[in-house]
């Protein structure tokens, strides 16, 4: 176990901890900056006629301290590797983040803020990492952002331990997160924060907007625990800023202490929700735009023109623009440092630049997987372990119940060069941490979980798909819980579901997942002990689907199947062939990948055109298809398939053969 936290500890973690002084400007300008952030953040929901002004009005001092005095970032190079990461966990407070991104010089014009929550605006109601520069992760579902932040801190700690060298602290940045009461009520935040404390992750600073109000009213309705004691029990440094409304200096000092603590830190910042509004300190200001007269009085009290929205005083604009330019200079300096690092440490430099450039060293798939692909699927851990050993970008973890990996690479607070985290039974937080790794950059995250528990992580898996994060999810077979996975996954855009039948198809799934970095992949493993199929093919399985067995070039019927049901279809094929029935077995481990193949290839495999080529009619001789998969949603609408049903007795070889016989009798098709 890591040593217990000590209040005020000044120990340092991996990498150099900076102590930049605040920009030497007067308190009056700082107050005007905060007022600008408040008004700008309140203007957006009012003009958009929807949104959450309450928390931005309360959190404006925190945002100003972080973006104006503490954080290192580059508007011209938003992805520069050593930037400080900022995560707005309570994503409904998005107007606050857009205000800071615009003020500091990112490519987010004022006109976009004026289109807040409008279709095609760069300022959607909740931050989206793929729509707005400066947004690291998609947040909104409470608890996700703070859990992503833990994953980012994992990535930072790992790269610092592996690549920092004397005189070259390439990774000495921090991860900052603002969260609200709702995030801390969510169970996944406790999962993630307990993990961060266990691993003693340095340079992770969470500012808790403690305003005692939720959307339903006072937090006393549902949230009465002592949060600070909970975090102390997790092993975090904890501090309290009692005046978060006007205490800029206190917030600044608390952030510097937290950053230097050498472990994760929580700063409780007591604020007034809707500060400056006539509805301040009530839940009425949480999720409803300010009325025009309320907004006008807020502007007047801030010293701004009452009738002029989206107003930024010149001194305020100059202050934030200068901060952004300083970050651009820092980013250029870091690149120069990296070049010097390459002269002294060429091997490490090559590894690092490949990782940061998302260049994966192509594994020798045949050599790595050749022996493993001939083994029963129970040794899938051998397949994945071989890949992890050969692909340094791979980092992730497993939850309780997943078979152990054969890698000697555990990430602990004592060894941060390890690449495998034991998440314990923390499915939701573990998957969210993998999203944080994906957002951090330089990683191919993987997450392993028993099939019966994988849906506990569904919120994070869905956000992987939405955020274009190429996380590899592996659902290890445990005999329960896998039946409903296909229906859910195939209803989720940008998620590839693989149901491989043997080790060769598992290897194909891993290869596809590792080479497609903008789409998550969920691999549902077949039962332990499943024997290798004599006719399976890794190279063809990479296409998503292929002809596994076919007695003739033009069959009279096609069995389309995947995963566990492939072996049963192969046995049914043998039964029917002995009766003179011309049957083809098509294995489709991944419909999403198969759908992307050429029309000619799909026609060759299925004997009929793809649904996406609806203008092309199927030839009269096109064989009918029976789709054989447990829990399938696909019936006649795909390839004229017949849904066989999800009852296990209907998926046995004889039952499948009987269905074929019934279809032949009904359609009078010849043998």
TrEMBL record:
Against Pfam families, the record matches this protein to: Transket_pyr (PF02779), Transketolase_C_1 (PF22613), Transketolase_N (PF00456)
Keyword check for Magnesium: yes
Cellular component, GO, one term: cytosol
Catalytic reactions on record: D-sedoheptulose 7-phosphate + D-glyceraldehyde 3-phosphate = aldehydo-D-ribose 5-phosphate + D-xylulose 5-phosphate
What keywords appear on the UniProt entry? Magnesium, Metal-binding, Thiamine pyrophosphate, Transferase
Compositionally biased spans, kind Low complexity: 1-12
Cofactor(s) needed: Mg(2+); thiamine diphosphate; Co(2+)
- What GO molecular function terms would the record report? metal ion binding; transketolase activity
Q: Tell me which Gene3D superfamilies the record gives.
A: 3.40.50.920, 3.40.50.970
User: InterPro entries from the xrefs?
Assistant: THDP-binding, Transketo_C/PFOR_II, Transketolase-like_C_2, Transketolase-like_Pyr-bd, Transketolase_CS, Transketolase_fam, Transketolase_N
Which residue ranges are recorded for the region named Disordered?
1-26
Q: What GO terms describe the biological role, i.e. biological process, of this protein?
A: pentose-phosphate shunt
Q: Which domain of life is it from?
A: Eukaryota
> What is the protein name given in its UniProt record?
Transketolase-like pyrimidine-binding domain-containing protein
Domain Transketolase-like pyrimidine-binding, residue spans: 363-533
The record ties this protein, via SMART domains, to: Transket_pyr (SM00861)
Q: Which family does it belong to?
A: Belongs to the transketolase family.
């Amino acid at each position: 176990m890591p040593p217990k936290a000590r209040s005020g500890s000044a120990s340092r973690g991996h990498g150099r901890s900076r102590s930049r002084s605040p920009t030497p400007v007067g308190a009056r300008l700082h107050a005007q900056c905060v007022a600008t952030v408040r008004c700008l953040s309140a203007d957006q929901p009012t003009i958009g006629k929807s949104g959450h002004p309450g928390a931005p009005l309360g959190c404006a001092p925190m945002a100003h301290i972080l973006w104006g005095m503490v954080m290192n970032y580059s508007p011209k190079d938003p992805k520069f590797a050593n930037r400080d990461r900022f995560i707005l966990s309570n994503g409904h407070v998005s107007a606050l983040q857009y205000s800071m991104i615009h003020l500091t010089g990112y490519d987010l014009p004022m006109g976009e803020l004026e289109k807040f929550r409008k279709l095609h605006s760069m300022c959607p109601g909740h931050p989206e990492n793929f729509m707005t520069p400066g947004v690291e992760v998609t947040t909104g579902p409470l608890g996700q952002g703070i859990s992503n932040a833990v994953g980012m801190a994992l990535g930072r700690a790992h790269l610092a331990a592996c690549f920092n060298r004397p005189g070259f602290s390439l990774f000495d940045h921090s991860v900052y997160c603002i969260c609200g009461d709702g995030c801390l009520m969510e169970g996944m935040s406790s999962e993630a924060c307990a993990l961060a404390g266990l691993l003693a992750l340095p340079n992770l600073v969470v500012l808790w907007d403690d305003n005692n109000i939720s959307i339903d009213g006072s937090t006393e309705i549902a949230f009465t625990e002592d949060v600070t004691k909970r975090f102390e029990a997790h092993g975090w440094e904890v501090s309290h800023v009692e005046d978060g409304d006007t205490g800029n200096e206190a917030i600044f000092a608390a952030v510097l202490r937290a950053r230097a603590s050498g472990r994760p830190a929580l700063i409780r910042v007591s604020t007034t929700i809707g500060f400056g509004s006539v509805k301040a300190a009530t839940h009425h200001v949480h999720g409803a735009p300010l009325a025009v007269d309320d907004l006008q009085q807020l502007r007047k009290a801030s010293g701004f023109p009452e009738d002029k929205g989206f107003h930024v005083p010149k001194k305020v604009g100059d202050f934030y623009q200068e901060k952004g330019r300083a970050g651009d200079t820092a980013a250029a300096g870091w690149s120069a440092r990296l070049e010097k690092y390459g002269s002294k440490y060429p091997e490490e430099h090559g590894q690092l630049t490949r990782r940061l450039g998302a260049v994966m060293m192509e594994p020798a798939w045949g050599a790595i997987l050749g022996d493993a692909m001939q083994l029963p699927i129970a040794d899938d851990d051998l397949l994945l372990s071989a890949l992890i050993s050969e692909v340094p970008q791979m980092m992730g973890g497993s939850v309780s119940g997943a078979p152990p990996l054969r890698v000697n690479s555990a990430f602990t607070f004592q060894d941060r060069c390890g690449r495998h985290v034991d998440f314990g039974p923390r499915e939701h937080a573990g998957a969210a941490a993998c999203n944080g790794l994906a957002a951090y950059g330089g990683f191919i995250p993987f997450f392993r979980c028993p099939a019966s528990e994988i849906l506990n992580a569904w919120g994070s898996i869905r956000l992987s798909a939405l955020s274009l994060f190429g996380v590899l999810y592996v659902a290890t077979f445990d005999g329960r819980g896998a039946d409903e996975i296909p229906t859910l996954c195939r209803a989720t855009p940008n998620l590839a579901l693989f149901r491989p039948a043997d080790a060769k198809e598992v290897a194909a799934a891993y290869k596809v997942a590792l080479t497609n970095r903008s789409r998550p992949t969920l691999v549902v493993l077949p039962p332990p002990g499943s024997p290798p199929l004599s006719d399976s093919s890794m190279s063809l399985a990479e296409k998503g689907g292929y002809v596994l067995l076919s007695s003739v070039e033009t069959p009279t019927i096609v069995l389309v199947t995947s995963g566990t049901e492939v072996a049963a279809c192969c046995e049914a094929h043998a039964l029917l062939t002995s009766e003179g029935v011309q049957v083809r077995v098509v294995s489709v481990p991944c419909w999403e990948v198969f759908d992307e193949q050429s029309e000619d290839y799909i026609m060759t495999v299925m004997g009929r055109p793809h649904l996406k080529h609806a203008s092309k009619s199927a030839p009269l001789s096109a064989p009918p298809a029976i789709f054989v998969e447990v829990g399938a949603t696909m019936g006649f609408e795909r390839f004229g398939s017949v849904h066989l049903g999800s009852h296990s007795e209907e998926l046995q070889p004889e039952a499948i053969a009987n269905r074929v016989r019934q279809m032949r009798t009904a359609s009078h098709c010849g043998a």
